[in-house]
Every structure is written in C-alpha cells, then in structure tokens.
Model the fold of this input.
Amino acid sequence: MAIEISKLKNGLTVATDPMGHLETAAIGVWVAAGGRYETEAVLGVSHFLEHMAFKGTISRSALQIAEEIESVGGYLSAYTSREQTGYFVRCLKEDIPLAVDLLGDILMNSTFEADELERERGVILQEIGQCADNPEDLIYDLLQEAAFPNQPLGRPILGTNETVNGVDQAMLRSHMKRFYGSDSMWVVGAGAIDHGALVTLCEKAFDGLTALSEAAKPEPALYHGGARIEQRDFEQAHITLGFPGVGVEHEDFYAAQVYSEILGGGMSSRLFQEVREKRGLCYSVYSFHSGYTDTGLFSIYAGTSADDANELVSVITGEMERLATKVEDKELTRSLAQVKAGVLMSLESAYSRAEWIARYLPRFGRVLTPDELVKRFESVDAVQLKSFGTRLMETRAPAFAALGPVAGLDSYDAIAARFGG
Done:
C-alpha cells in the first residue's frame, strides 16, 4: 500500500491508495456519524439521511443521479453503521471526475424535497418490516439491546416505525449541519487513481464545506447484559450470547479476534466441530467480536431446533470454559494463519482498500499497514487468549437473545449462572 494523505484548505482529508494494475477505482466519503450518535428522539435519522442523499440535489433529480452513474457502468451506494456513514462509487478510471462530482453533489446540495422524503419514508418502513421478518437480522438488534439497554449503542440503526415517521426536512438538515463537516469527513480513493488529480477534484466538489462548530462525540457506552427473548412461529430457535468486548484501541483487541477464530471462526473451530460435526445440533454456528471506539461486544450465534436449544447452550458454555483453560498450539497456529489470510485477501479489491483506510484513518490518525496489522496478530499468545476467555467466563450478566420456538428454553438466570466465575 502506497498511501498518500492530504488535507484541503477547508480541513477535508483526502487519502488514496493507487493500484496501478487496475482499470477501475473505488471512491468514497466516510462520515463520523452513525446510530450511536443519535438521541432516542431522532433514532434512525442517520440512516434516513443516507437514503435521502440519493433523492435529488439542486441540479439533479433522483433519476438523473441513478442514470448518470449507471450510464457509464458505475455503481453508487451507501451504508450506515453504528459509528460511520459511508457513501461510495465504483467506476472505470476515466469516470472518476463524474464519481467525485456526484459524491460532492449529494453531500453538499441535497434538497430533501417533501415528496421524495415521504416516498423514502415508506421505503425505510418497509426495510424495518423486512428486518423484523428476518430472524438473523432481528436477533442481533435484540442482542445489542440486551448488552447496551437504554443507550444509543443498544438501539437499532434503522430506527423504529415511530421515530422514522417523525423525521422531517428540518431534522435531516439539522443532523447534516451537526455531523457533516470538513473535519468529520474523509474522502478515500483506491485503484486506478492519481492522488493529485483526486485532490483537485475534491477541492471543487466540496468547495464551501466547513468544519463543525463543535466536534460531535457519541455517548459513552456502558455494558449491562440481560435477556431479550421473543416467542415466534419460526422453524428454528435463533440463539445469541454476548459478552463485554474491547475497543479497537484496547491492547486485547487482537487477542479477541484470534480467540473468536478459535472458538467459532471457521469449519475447524471448536464450536463448528463440537456443535455441528460431532453432535449435529445445528447447521450454522459462529462467533465474532465487534470493536467500537470505546468498547466492544463478543457474540456467538447458533440456530437450532426447539428440542436441542438447551443442549446447544450447554455445549457452547462448555467449549468457552475449556478454551479459557487450554489453547492448543496447533489451533493457535491455524487461527493466526486464517487471520493473516483474511487481512491480505481483503486488500485485493479497490473498495476493500478504500474501506481499510476509512476504518483506520479517522480512529488512529494514520493507516495501519497490512504488515503492521499481521505483526499485531502474530504477537498474540496462548496466555492472552486464556486471559480473554477467562474474562468472558467471569461475566456476571451475559447478554442473551433468543427468537423463535423458545418457550422451552432454560431461564435466563439458569444460563447466566454458568458464568460469573
């Protein structure tokens, strides 16, 4: 990675990672704004704003925005996470000027017309309904709520029917004014791209963008734990366990990722082998660690039959307990290889490289190189892994979410009693 970083006169940061062998480029704008920056009254406004950015500007209608990028074979999209909102384009190298112009236009000149707002409100309400009908989406909202109740990090990114129905033009403009500033946005390009040319394009496209009057900070998160259980008429019982994790700058962050690989990261993981291969209790079982700015959440998911749900929870608990006491050399070696391969494979596309920069630059003020990241993972040893595993087992109030035919599940108190040291 040959990353170049410049700061425009207005404070906007522009970063590039050229990949000379490509004929395409990925260019995006990432904003330090997401679900956890919202109050309960405006829940879902970050996601609503992301949708409305494509619905018309001073000079382009929603249809014109779509037609212009697709007429050159390009792709324009966006997403909202708990800590970032990203807008990005993938295009041929000769269409980079159009891509930057479109990104600048939707982020600087959106009009939020009333008729478009009402149409998009309906779309988002449909999206919320679709999530409610999809157990593998809904279960994570329930787990997040159990882990971080009554605080932004525990609320759904999409918002609720009530809060989405309350969004209006003034709210969208206020949210953009509060969070979309030159010091809270990063333009990142990767692929067939020239740094100087992108800087010049951004100076024009984002002319007039100013810094925020006050730096926006999310509400600090406080892990709580508890249960969220919903009886639904599904074929399977969907079960998740959550535990306090660590933030991306915490010294145990890399140990948490390696621990997750060993426990439930692949077909050779302990959970896959014990739960699926040996006992046949489920089709899907895995674990992962989500790191935020100041905290994290370690999660385990499995889907099983109602009759097997209690045995499944017991087996998961047993495997966690065993991993807290003994780590095999071969599984540590294997998991480090998986992590290393995942890091390097993720850098094979222009978009992945752009997102890599957008992940590290806002948080660290620089971009971690692949070699640096691999070395951090390779420094993880069995002592750290057992320490992290012990920390999870000592959680007195694990987060627990269950969805489906779960009436026969053991009580939350009985499940929680297996933890807490």
